[in-house]
Structure formats: C-alpha cells, structure tokens
Specification:
The chain has 156 residues and is an all-beta fold. 0% of the residues lie in helices and 37% in strands. The protein contains no helices and 14 strands. It has a 4-stranded antiparallel beta sheet with strand order 3-4-7-8, with no helix packed on it. The protein starts with 14 loop residues before the first strand and ends in a 15-residue tail after the last strand.
C-alpha cells in the first residue's frame, strides 16, 4: 500500500496483523489460517531451528528437568527477555536467571546441572569465562573457566 501511495483507511476485519520480531515488518494473514505446519508444536520452529520471538538462531539444545533448553544468539524467547538461553516447558518460554551476556554455542547436562559454553564472560552477573553451570536457580563458574570461547562439534 505504501508503494502505491494509498493513504486511506484499511479494513482489517478477518485478518490477523502482527509484527515480525526479526524484520520489524508487519505480517498480515487471514484470521484462523495456520501456517504450513500441521502439528501445533511446529508453529514454534522453522527451518534452521529459529523460534518466533528469537531474532537470532538457536545454536544448542538439551533437555533438563523435562524442559527443552535452547541456547544461541537471541535476546528474547517469545515475550520473555531471555539473554541467550531459555527453557521451553511445552507451552511457554522462561528465562534462566538474568541469562548470559553473549552467544551460547554448546549445552549439556552434567551432575543434574545445565552446563553452557560459548562466547560469553558472565552468566547471571557472575564472571564465568566462556563456561557456566545453572543449578535451577543461579549461575556459577566452573573453576576459572576457559581461556577462549567454547564451540561444539555437533552444533545445530
């Protein structure tokens, strides 16, 4: 409409209008029309494991306490400010403390704790030097950490 110079009112009855978080552009589709995915859970994923609401890709996944943990370059998960790491319980996203200050490249579970590695130096406000542990309520360092960023051989 902008390109044509139209400046009148638009009747949007019967349409869902939202803003794409990645591009900032409006997205309009007829009400009640689902995307190409048939499984309702597929609405949260697209090619490359990008999740709606995550402006950057997910680079690592693991499971902790029956929750899917995602790590990557994103700042938000859904409507939650997540800072590079978030938990999905099957219906909503939650943050893990105040998150991590930069990209998460690897996730695993060790001794009932989430272990995150990547290109970050603080987690939950604690100096961690590229590797950190989440015990379900707080982030902590693993010793003095690493001397360089952590990558993984099986990253998504």
């Amino acid at each position: 409409m902008r390109a044509s110079g139209y400046q009148g009112a638009l009747d949007l009855e019967g349409y869902d209008v939202r803003v794409d978080r990645r591009s900032g552009e409006p997205v309009v589709r007829p009400s009640g029309v689902r995307g190409a995915q048939e499984d309702p859970d597929d609405a949260y994923w697209s090619e490359g494991f990008d999740v709606p609401g995550l402006p950057w890709s997910v680079m690592a996944l693991t499971v902790l306490d029956n929750k899917l943990i995602a790590g990557g370059g994103f700042d938000a998960a859904g409507d939650v400010m997540a800072n590079h790491v978030a938990a999905w319980d099957g219906s909503s996203w939650s943050r893990l403390g105040s998150g991590i200050d930069d990209i998460v490249r690897a996730l695993t579970v060790y001794d009932s704790k989430l272990i995150a590695g990547g290109w970050f130096t603080t987690a939950g406000g604690v100096e961690v030097n590229y590797i950190a542990a989440w015990d379900g309520s707080t982030w902590s360092a693993l010793g003095s950490g690493m001397d360089d960023g952590v990558n993984c051989s099986d990253c998504l």
